[in-house]
Amino acid sequence: MVKALIFDVFGTCVDWRTAIAAEVARVLPTVDPVAFADAWRGEYQPAMERIRDGNRGYIALDDLHLENLHRVAKRFGVIAPDDLNTAWERLTPWADVGKGLAQLKQSHIIAPCSNGSIALMTRLGKFAGLPWDCILGADLAQDYKPKPAVYVAGCTALRLDPSDVMMVAAHNDDLHAAQNAGLATAFVARPTEHGPEQTGDLAPTGTWDHVAGDFIDLARQLS
Amino acid sequence: MVKALIFDVFGTCVDWRTAIAAEVARVLPTVDPVAFADAWRGEYQPAMERIRDGNRGYIALDDLHLENLHRVAKRFGVIAPDDLNTAWERLTPWADVGKGLAQLKQSHIIAPCSNGSIALMTRLGKFAGLPWDCILGADLAQDYKPKPAVYVAGCTALRLDPSDVMMVAAHNDDLHAAQNAGLATAFVARPTEHGPEQTGDLAPTGTWDHVAGDFIDLARQLS
After folding, report:
1. Contact residues, chain A to chain B, C-beta under 8 Å
2. Does residue B186 share a domain with residue B106?
3. What is the nearest CA distance from B63 to chain A, expressed in angstroms?
4. pTM, whole model, 2 decimals?
5. Which of B89, B114, B132 is the last residue of a domain?
6. Helix (H, G, I), strand (E, B), or coil: what is residue A69?
7. How far does chain A reach from its first CA to its final CA, in angstroms?
8. Residue span of the structural domain in which A36 resides
9. Each residue of A3-12: pLDDT tens digit?
């Protein structure tokens, strides 16, 4: 029985694509909003990769998102206002998340273990009603998932052994990394994170401790 | 109008003395429980002082509490079990705190800025029903209040200017330090933190932005 559940957030807890596209449509009416959202998110891994590789010091995701916004806007031939970047603080939770987290919180410490900063996760948590007990993630490790330091820093902050902590994610690569760091794992598929044509992460690709249909199902499995 | 409220916890949000004495009475029935609680808390500042002075590297308060427990137990002629230390995770909030924090949370980010670790504040928050948006404090700065780094690290984690953050405390020295670091300040007296004979911190000794009777009064003042 693990004592804490730590969660991936973008894609696992919230539908970033629909919310970002809606905000882009409002602020940049001349571009294809879904294409813009996908392009913006497409810069996410490359931007973190330079930091994970040690080619750049740690910079919070808020700042990477802003750099990426302007890079993508240029490609789309528009100028984006800086405050479009705050759209990442206002994403919509999947329908099961509020109820599921409330149930899981009754028996476990629950916290995000996201690549988002403490500031971003705090504001998103308030907006989306995610009842976190604390905020873990990239800021504590000053590095980005899937580097093991991020998972380990979360466990250390809670003064728990990794085997007492379960990583919950919709992304198999996140779970592989967490499992390699000694954590328990739970996979919850989010088959429309990338839209109706999504091909990746539709099913578990590893030996995870739990595979659940949604957070309410996970709460049932852990009760 | 500040955007975030950060709180001292021991004494300001929770009545540590009554809860610790009750636990001591249960576990160490031969000692005077209130005297033991006061002696244990009395080791708090000296233990942190060595770290603030740079004579010892940062060690989480959980570990200092445990060292202090055994030092005090020896003085009282008893042997204390290690797990008495977890009593600090089960302290009782003052009567106004739950309702007051819930009101303040509607309009502000709320977070502890305590010398307690993320682990300790997370567990205490769950036990006492403190609805924090995130956990700030000593762990982030790897140093102890009233060192300015602790207040500044909290603001930095929220990506806010210190002038957009208000420190709430029952201790004037905490507020003096926060004010010197550029934060707004609110004083809430807790006249029985140290028992019915308390002499210190009964009234504000500085020019604080707010002086409130309790957290519900503070919410009214800030609304």
Report:
1. 60, 62, 109, 111, 117-119, 121-123, 125-126, 131-136, 139, 157-160
2. yes
3. 11
4. 0.97
5. B89
6. helix
7. 10
8. 16-89
9. 999 999 999 9
